[in-house]
Each structure stands twice: as structure tokens, then as C-alpha cells.
Amino acid sequence: MARSKIRKSSKSSVMNTGRRVTLNPKLARRSFLKISAATAALTGVAMTTKLTKKAHAAGKTTPYEGSKTVRTICTYCAVGCGIEAEVHNGVWVRQEVAADHPVSRGAHCCKGAGAIDMVTSPKRMKKPMKRVNGKWKAISWDTAMTEITDKLKDIREKNGPDALHFNGSAKVSNEMAYQIRKFAAFWGSNNVDHQARI
Question: Does the predicted TM-score (pTM) go above 0.70?
Fold first, then answer.
């Protein structure tokens, strides 16, 4: 049992007593437990359906007129989860989980759930960009390829094939990852890694 030390104002000596030390001596343990129980009960009452409601996803829920559902495979990794893509006028407009797929069994990881963003995201780059004087500007594909190949050749000639590192990404498909690895092999380098390990 902890003993408190009471310092008398008139003397500098310290005297020990047999009282318990509490943060608030006016609140006993039993009173604290009663207050805690009442707080928990009131919190439960506050979380009833009158104060909270089920969240609903916003957006169109019925299929677009004339659209078709295409069963496909998620391209993000080698697991091969199923996706049911809704295609309207040749454009992937919405996706659902393939509920009866033998691999994913009606589930998606966070990358698979956002697979459609590879096609529909407003942040998706559609043309090469180059930073000029601190600002990004669009350049042509021919200009981009010429500048990149010239720089790569210069690096290889000055420093050899191992001066370059090839880095994969969780945002590339299986086919893109294969092409990165093959390009590194043709380049003559074994410096290949993945962004998840860095």
C-alpha cells in the first residue's frame, strides 16, 4: 500500500500516515466505476440509429444503357483476381468484384479496387511531360524518346551498363513488369528492384 507524506507547514520534518494516495481524494474507487459505467451506457445510447446511419456509395448504381459486362483479370500482380468490368461504348466505366471467382472469392485488395483509375483517373498522364524552368510542359513523343535514348546512351558509354538501376512499381501490370525486367537484361544490368523493398 502506498503511503502519503504529509508535510506540516510549521515544521520541516516529514510524517508518514496510513492513507491511500489518489488523484482526487473526494472520488472513491466505487464512485469512479459507477461514473465509468454511466458514461459507457450514455455513449451506447448516443450511438443508436437515430444519430448514426449507414453510409451509401454515391454514384450511378444501374448499368448504363447498352453497356456490357466483361469478366477479366486484375493486372496489378500475379495473383489473378477476377474483375467484372462494365464497358460502355468501348470505355471501361465501372467495375465490380467477381463474386464467384475461384482466386479472389469476391474480394479485392486496395490496388484491385482502384484498378479502373488506371483508365479513368483525371491525374493520368496522357502525353510526355518535361520540367522546363521549374514548370511542367507537354512535349511530343518523338522529342521525349530522342531525349531519353540520348541520355541513356550517354550514361552507358561513360559509366557502363551497371550505372543504371531499373525500379519496378506496384502500379504496373504483369506485362509492364516483364518488359522492365527484359529491358534491364538487354541493357546488360542486373540492377532491378521493386519500390516495395525500398
Answer: no
Enumerate domains of the chain plus CATH numbers.
68-120 (2.20.25.90), 129-197 (3.40.50.740)
Decide: 83 and 75 in contact? Cβ < 8 Å: no
pLDDT band at residue 55, thresholds of 50, 70 and 90?
low
Tell me 74's DSSP state.
-
* 136 φ/ψ angles, rounded to the nearest 5 degrees: -80, 135
**Beta strand residue intervals within the chain, DSSP E:** 5-7, 14-16, 68-73, 82-88, 91-97, 129-132, 135-138, 166-168, 192-194
C-alpha cell at 9: 507547514
For 45-72, what is the mean pLDDT? 73
- For the record, the C-alpha cell of 98 comes out as 467477381
Per-residue cell: 172: 504496373
